[in-house]
Amino acid sequence: MHLELSGLTRSFGSLVANDHIDLVIEPGEIHCLLGENGAGKSTLMNMLYGLLQPDSGEIVIDGEKVRITSPSDAIRHGIGMVHQHFTLVPVFTVAENVMLGRETTRGGGVLDRKKAHSRVTELSDRYGLAVDPEAMVEDIPVGVQQRVEIIKALANDARVLILDEPTAVLTPAEIDDLIAVMRQLKESGTSIVFITHKLKEVRAIADKITVIRRGKVVGQAEPSASEEELAELMVGRAVDLVVDKAPAEPQDTVLRVTGLTVIDERGFTAVDDVDLEVRAGEILAVAGVQGNGQTELTEALLGLTPIAAGSITLSGEDLTTKSTRHRLEAGIGYIPEDRAHDGFVGSFTVAENLILDLFREAPFGNGLALRTDEIDKNATARVQEFDIRTQGIGLPVSSLSGGNQQKVVLARELSRPLKLLVASQPTRGVDVGSIEFLHNRIVEERDHGTAVLIVSTELDEIAALADRVAVMYRGQVVGVVPADTPRDELGLMMAGASKAEAHETAIENPTTLGTI
Q1: How many angstroms separate the CA atoms of 368 and 378, rounded?
Q2: Is the CB of residue 150 less than 8 Å from the CB of residue 164?
Q3: CA–CA separation, 204 vs 242, rounded Å?
Q4: Which letter does DSSP use for residue 247 in this model?
Q5: Which positions fall inside the ABC transporter domain (predicted)?
Q6: Residue 175's closest CA among 167, 165, 164, 163?
Q7: Is the peptide bond preceding residue 363 cis, with omega within 30 degrees of 0?
């Protein structure tokens, strides 16, 4: 299939998400759509898949202009899409999920599960997907669930397959498996549109690269382009992708976690008997695929979720039963993984958000009254110090870009003396240029003697920041390893292997991304 997008434009109010975008997808190629979060990649693909309608422009398939008003239209034209957040029914089998929406029956109107089973087996064997048709979706790993989504699309005879941020929830080994599947699909003649913001993956798999920035196509690049060149295209300026930091000089233990156990709201053990220590002047990074207990761990440290067992001490003080406010006042700074939900109040001004946990204290508060002059003075200083791009400190934080919103959160937390900084996914949804700034400020905080605990699903971020790495899998810490541990070994530990098993296996079977 030859697919052409011509002048596609889509606005949401005053925001132009896609601005006259042209894109050509050739038969049997892997075309990477590269750009930072919010650049407009997913909006473009949602128009191609019929989830959104363009304000203007056209879609041309094999020389014929088509109108795609729904996913059903897209499927009929041979376009399939695997979304970043899967659309599977957990309590159904693989075969039952694949037959959803395309059910076939035999005598008496009974669902023909045997035919669905055969179809899954056929596609699984043809493309090397290795999926058991009778497995319950809730019982299979995330990487296999993604294969099920791909089989669903292929079962509809998709000739163009859109993969939207497909590696966001995968371990490095699962990413390698996905790359192998993509190459197999390419060889069979299927075209793939691969949406991502991860530079290593682009260079590993792309035939062509189109870069989108702020809703516009800003250039094409070859897979041989360096990460620095790709980053510059994405951001619009040169970016230093390497964090310049001296070796850590750790001092006394600040945070000590012993036997920490957290039961989530479903009754499952989210954090399982975890022991951790973080020392002053070091960065301990917690690595793991999203959903392995990292969120519950950080929330337990802040007192945001109750613990079932264990203890938490900060510089010798037992915080296990203390309130969140007490923990903040004791010297913990917190950057939550979802800044919009937990990090700021969108309708409050930039100035107000910069003193959210300080408004009771001098010089910002005086009894029941707020000292607006001091609040504004603080905001002006922080905006300059943290390079927060805003047209005014009196504007709501919701009007800022994601990177600048994150800078507001970081600026607030670093504006008071800290013993411990807990940062969960500190650069999620942030452009490459802001990542550079945020990383440098976190390292600077470490160098001031603060203990830093980072939680990240990005191995590049782990490698850039960590002095030591704790790997979590199914709520447990499977090992704490040095920061220079190879990516392959970290990936295997993220899949549950012990330190020794990961080291031996990585030597025998290096991953694709580990060689880049």
Answers
A1: 19
A2: no
A3: 20
A4: P
A5: 3-239, 255-499
A6: 167
A7: yes
Residue 337 lies in a domain: no
Does the residue 439 lie in any domain? no
For 242, 407, 426, 472, the CA distances from 292, given in Å and listed in that order, are 28, 27, 18, 6
Higher pLDDT, 361 or 373: 373
Considering the domain boundaries, does residue 492 fall inside one? no
The answer to whether residues 459 and 412 belong to one domain is: no
Asked if residue 314 lies in contact with residue 333, where contact means CB atoms within 8 angstroms, the answer is no
Please tell me whether residues 348 and 210 are part of one structural domain: no
Flag whether 135 is in a domain.
Answer: yes
Q: Which two tokens stand for residue 51?
A: 């989830």
Q: Rounded to the nearest 5 degrees, what angle is found at the Cα of 126, between the Cα atoms of 120 and 132?
A: 35
- The pTM of the full predicted model, rounded to 2 decimals, is 0.70
Phi then psi for residue 162, to 5 deg, are -95, 125
Q: What is the pLDDT of residue 123?
A: 87
Measured distance CA(33)–CA(47) in Å, rounded:
14
**Domain limits for position 399:** 343-416
Read off the tokens for 479. Answer: 């090992």
Sign for the pseudo-dihedral over CA of 385, 391, 395, 398: negative
**What gap in Å lies between CA 124 and CA 103, rounded to an integer?**
19
Q: How many CB atoms lie within 10 A of CB 343?
A: 23
Q: Which residue bears the tokens 């898949």?
A: 49
Domain count across the chain: 3
Domain with residue 157: its CATH number is: 3.40.50.300
Q: Encoding tokens for residue 322? A: 């203390």
Q: Which residues contact 315 (CB under 8 A, 6 or more apart)?
A: 252, 254, 331, 419
